[in-house]
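Dear Dr. H.,

I hope your travels went smoothly. While you were away I took the liberty of generating a structure for the chain from your last submission, since the lab meeting agenda had it listed for discussion. I wanted you to have the full record in hand beforehand rather than looking at slides cold. The sequence, exactly as received, is reproduced here:
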Amino acid sequence: MAQITQFAMLAILAFNLVIIILLAFFYLRLAKLDSFSRGAVRIDRKFRSRIEKVIEKQSSEAVSKLVASYSRTLEGQLGGLFSNLESVTTKQSVDLANFIKDQQAAIIKETQLLVANDVVKMQKELEDYRLSQIKNLDSRVNQVIADVAKRVLAKSIDMNTHQELVIASLEKAKAENLFGDGSKQG
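The corresponding predicted structure, in token form, is as follows:
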């Protein structure tokens, strides 16, 4: 941005310089013409007209050369500024691309770390849940065994009756969903 402002200032300065040079040139030409015309009062009007045309042509050629010279100079400077602007823009584009690439890599690493932490946390929660369910199942199995033992030990029975009591207790436990997920307790 500073280079563009610098270019604008240079262009304005060059334009002002051209205007000043043109004004000085015309002033000198007019002064010469005026002094020439005073000294040549006797010269024929036709001759005067020819002289004015020659002076005008020479002035016009000199101004054209001056403008062309400044135009070439300005075009050269402008080309240099545009080349410089292009290189700065290219460098900034490369820097921005590298920054984005670095940020993307950092985001990927951070995401991988968060996912790994979540996986470890979920594994621990699953293990805790599994142990809790095993403990709950052990507790219910112990309760069923205690109930069966009370029923079996409270009576003296033969083998068939004992077998029937165990089967009945297991069916009761099954009906109470003891061996299922534990969500339907009776």
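Two observations you may find useful: Residues 123-175 form one domain. The helical segments are 2-39, 45-154, 159-175.

With kind regards,
E. W.
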